[in-house]
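Re: weekly structure request thread

Next one in the queue (143 aa):
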Amino acid sequence: MNIYTHIEKYKDYFHSIRLHDSIFLLDLKLPSRWEIKKVLASTATTTQIKINDSTDTFVLISFYSPFTSQEVDLLINDVDRIIKWNKDHEEKNNLLDMKILELRKVFDSNNLDSLRSINFDFNNPEKNIKLDGKEPTLVSKGD
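Done, posted below.
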């Protein structure tokens, strides 16, 4: 993949790309509400970050690593992972807001007895719903 393709991929966030001594730096302007450190720390990496400037809406952040092919590829993968995780998180929040509105309409337009019989069934039983990052466990029989 050439440099234009990478810059095009990050065009909504791209600020600059630099080489300082033997350090590769990719500067991005990301939404300040995004999780960056948490996502970066979730996987072993050599990519480092430096926050250069921040406002209520954006943070200008430098991602940097040694200037080797392997390290730069790892940095690019880390940036991709951060962007994907945060976009997925935003989409989930938007979907939740939409589903809350739909559920409110259902509750507003039905009587209490019919609402008591509501069940939530997921079409794909292979996918397990996780709570706080953990799969739910069933309660075992007590004494």
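The mean pLDDT is 87. Helices lie at 3-9, 37-41, 69-109, 112-115.
Next request, please.
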